[in-house]
Amino acid sequence: MTPAQAEARFDIRFNDCHTRASLESRLRRLAAGQLHEAYELELRCSAEPFVCAPGRWHEAIARAACEVVGRPPEFSTSGGTSDARFIHPYCPLVELGLVGASMHHADEHVSLADLGSLTAIYTLMLTGFARVAAH
After folding, report:
1. 104 conformational bin, left if phi > 0, alpha if psi -120 to 50, beta if neither
2. Each residue's pLDDT tens digit, 54-65
3. Which domains does the chain have, with CATH numbers?
4. At a CB cut-off of 8 Å and minimum separation 6, what does 42 contact?
5. What is the pLDDT of residues 84-128, one digit of tens each?
6. How many of the other CB atoms lie within 10 Å of CB of 45?
7. How far apart are CA 63 and CA 72, in angstroms?
8. Distance (Å, rounded) from C-alpha 37 to C-alpha 31?
């Protein structure tokens, strides 16, 4: 028996080589070539992907992190979805924080040593920015 109607929902994580519009165009081309019946395609996009070019913020954080933990940080976008996607059009940004196996769980926790290191990094970073702003 063939159903009269079917529905599918899916999530596409995409990088800055694509836009919502480019993905919609591609999906419509694929559907037009593969589907022989009428279809409806509804897309929702919570935010476009972005890349922030390295600059003073990155350098200041790298210096502070290296001073506190003894090695330079790894600049990475592997942390997943971030609220930065809503902020980046308005100001330069860098995200810096703790990660761990319990992140976003009901019993989320981090080591006190890691929290102390992060606090020291923030303090050095803000002190450095205050010095730059004063001159």
Report:
1. left
2. 887 788 888 899
3. 8-49 (no CATH), 56-134 (1.10.150)
4. none
5. 888 888 887 888 888 778 877 888 888 999 999 999 999 998 887
6. 13
7. 7
8. 10
